[in-house]
Write a structure and sequence with these properties.
- By secondary structure, the protein is mainly alpha-helical.
- Among the domains are: 1-38; 39-107.
- It contains seven helices and two strands; from the N terminus they run αααααααββ.
- It has helices spanning 3-17, 20-23, 25-37, 40-65, 70-104, 117-131, 151-159; strands at residues 160-164, 170-174.
- β1 and β2 form a beta hairpin.
- It is flat.
- This is Dynamin stalk domain-containing protein.
- GO terms for molecular function: GTPase activity; microtubule binding.
- InterPro entries: Dynamin, Dynamin_stalk.
């Protein structure tokens, strides 16, 4: 289901049921149940793939060791195939039951579940974070967005000390100068 369809469906539910905040759980559960039910076909297909792979593995094991005994090989192949086929149907039933159980109860009261006011709060935080420009500070404490001064400029700044004088006026002093210092 696309995001547009979900938004349209939630909007229709809001019009039918009233205030969105009060009845948001119902449409959410319907959407989640639909998504969970979509897991059934791929899960059953996965069980079929596993069955086919186990059959291939049994054939590979039987081929090398039992070449000298063709009747025994055929018998073992039939027994192993029957064993795997007999286990496939219960496995598929269990998969279907697990998916039905997951769809029957949607635990919206779980502490890890983000819904209602928590979801709105988290969305607002993400919007605020996107609006603020991120400044990266390097380990040496220098702002990464600011252009770095050349080596000569840094040496000159080290030699020339700046002090605040009277009325906030910045005066330059040369380090080691007997007149100023």
């Amino acid at each position: 289901m696309s995001l547009m369809k979900i938004s349209a469906w939630l909007y229709r539910m809001q019009l039918v049921l009233g205030v969105l905040c009060l009845y948001l759980r119902v449409p959410f559960e319907v959407l989640v149940r639909r998504q969970i039910s979509r897991l059934l076909d791929p899960s059953l297909q996965c069980a079929d793939f596993i069955y086919e792979e186990l059959v291939k593995m049994s054939h590979r094991c039987l081929c090398n060791e039992l070449q000298q005994f063709p009747i025994l090989r055929r018998s073992m192949d039939e027994v192993i195939g029957k064993f795997l086929r007999d286990g496939l149907k219960p496995a598929q039933d269990m998969i279907a039951h697990i998916i039905e159980m997951e769809a029957d109860y949607i635990n919206t009261s779980h502490p890890s579940f983000i819904g209602g006011s928590k979801a709105v709060e988290q969305a607002q935080q993400q919007v605020r974070a996107a609006r603020l420009p991120a400044t990266v500070v390097r380990r040496d404490g220098v702002d990464a967005d600011r252009p770095q001064a050349s080596e000569k400029t840094q040496k000159a700044r080290a030699l020339l000390g700046r002090t605040t004088g009277v009325n906030g006026v910045i005066t330059d002093q040369i380090q080691g100068c007997p007149i100023c210092c």
